[in-house]
Write a structure and sequence with these properties.
Blueprint: E1 3-14, E2 17-26, E3 32-41, E4 48-56, E5 64-77, E6 80-88, E7 96-104, E8 116-117, E9 121-126, E10 131-137, E11 143-150, E12 153-161, E13 167-178, E14 186-191, E15 194-201, E16 204-212, E17 218-227, E18 233-242, E19 245-252, E20 255-263, E21 270-277, E22 288-289, E23 306-312, E24 317-325, E25 331-340, E26 344-351, E27 358-365, E28 375-380, E29 392-395
Parallel strand pairs: 4-8
Antiparallel strand pairs: 1-2, 2-3, 3-4, 5-6, 6-7, 7-9, 10-11, 11-12, 12-13, 14-15, 15-16, 16-17, 18-19, 19-20, 20-21, 22-23, 23-24, 24-25, 26-27, 27-28, 28-29
Length: 400
């Protein structure tokens, strides 16, 4: 059986324990199963040791998670985390939805005595899927928001998870309007009930500010601005750098770029500052950021240096770049490293340990011929932004 790994999403559970959700794809049939693995990763980045592996039930047809849509939502009891993830393939069907699972802090219980993991709850959001991005918590405990595309329409959806772990849809609004291309979009918190969304419409990068109440009621769009003029904008990721200053990393004319903006706390002012080309190369995979100390797709390192992973050139090579951002919004490229020679696909990153400069990345290869395994690499980002070569490279998604 030929297998491949789709959309790995790695997060920290507790201490040196990490969890990775991914789709295990049968390359012969095209079907995939939603899997969750737990591992220990020591603060030095090595070794990486498997603890347990579980397959989320039900599921015998195409199922996979989304890389920045996996987070710890609550702790129902001491030593147990309740996790929310957005996945495709709910109820053995082509449906998009949210799934809630429990993982103990030691990483042991996801295999549930075997390797089947029964979810706490699931809810269907849409009868289909094109792309999903950016699951984030809202102001009230147990409330969340994420973006998705359905039939070329961009939606903002909010969810509620109660104390028993039951998740329900609160609001679902086609706030992004018609999109005639599929690209992964992003949302971040601005202040109070104001949020910023970065996305692509027919190749034009757009930021909108919008009100979302703490309990998930979606209000009106406040303001909007564009980025990447004259560039075919693809996947975009937005991050708040400091008060009023925001970054958007995006694939523009297949090259990785960063745009900076000023956004007022009330969302009424959205002012473009700079558009910067980082390094030449093909950036067809989703830009992925590692933000310290939060478990988000974007993260800021201990030295105020930012890290971006992307796929480049015709060989689909995996690369990482570091850069800094000044108070005026200027982007300064620092270092660029290639770490995967061929078949680099979707990736997800997380800080290793407390306050260290070590980063762990889970990523997938892609091959219609052999089906690549998922891999982990760990590496440090040094003071000033230079990177060392990856310390660990191991198969993380063996056939069960």
């Amino acid at each position: 059986m030929r297998i491949s790994v789709a959309n790995p999403a790695i997060i920290r559970v507790a201490g040196n324990v990490y969890a990775c959700a991914y789709g295990r794809v049968n390359m012969t049939t095209g079907f995939s199963q939603l899997m969750v693995e737990t591992h220990t990763i020591l603060s030095g980045g090595t070794p990486i040791t498997n603890i347990a592996t579980g397959r989320v039930l039900p599921g015998v047809v195409s199922q996979y998670p989304f890389a920045d849509c996996f987070l710890r939502a609550s702790s129902p009891a001491p030593g147990i985390g309740r996790y929310l993830l957005i996945q495709y393939g709910i109820n053995n069907d082509a449906r998009l939805g949210a799934t809630v699972i429990d993982i103990t802090d030691d990483g042991l219980t996801i295999d549930d005595g075997g390797f089947f993991l029964t979810p706490v709850s699931q809810v269907i959001v849409a009868n289909g899927q094109e792309s999903v991005a950016s699951l984030i918590p809202l102001g009230s405990l147990g409330h969340f928001a994420f973006l998705y595309h359905y039939q070329n329409i961009g939606h903002l959806c909010t969810l509620h998870m109660d104390g028993a772990g039951t998740v329900t849809v609160v609001n679902d609004v086609a706030v992004l309007g018609f999109l005639n291309q599929v690209a992964n979009d992003s949302i971040c918190h601005v202040a109070g009930t104001v949020y910023a969304v970065a996305y692509s419409v027919s190749g034009q990068g757009t930021i909108k500010t919008i009100n979302i109440s703490d309990v998930g009621m979606i209000g009106a769009v406040i303001n909007a601005a564009t980025y990447g003029p004259g560039i075919s904008v693809g996947d975009s990721k937005i991050l708040r750098q400091a008060s009023g200053l925001y970054l958007v990393a995006f694939a523009g004319n297949v090259h990785p770029r960063v745009a900076t903006f000023n956004i007022s706390d009330d969302g009424t002012t959205v002012t473009p500052l700079r558009n910067t080309l980082l390094f030449e190369g093909e950036a067809t995979a989703t830009p992925d950021f590692c933000t310290f100390p939060f478990l988000l797709q974007w993260q800021k390192t201990a030295y105020n240096i930012y890290l971006l992973s992307y796929r480049h050139d015709a060989g689909s090579k995996g690369a990482m770049t570091t850069f800094s951002v000044t108070a005026s919004g200027a982007v300064v490229p620092i270092d660029n490293r290639e770490f995967e020679a061929t078949s680099f696909g979707a990736s997800s990153m997380v800080n290793v340990g407390d306050g260290t400069n070590k980063i762990a990345m889970a990523y997938s290869g892609f091959s219609t011929i052999v089906g690549d395994l998922g891999k982990y690499i760990t590496f440090p980002v040094l003071a000033g932004g230079p990177m060392k070569n990856p310390a660990v490279d191991m198969a993380a998604a063996q056939l069960i």
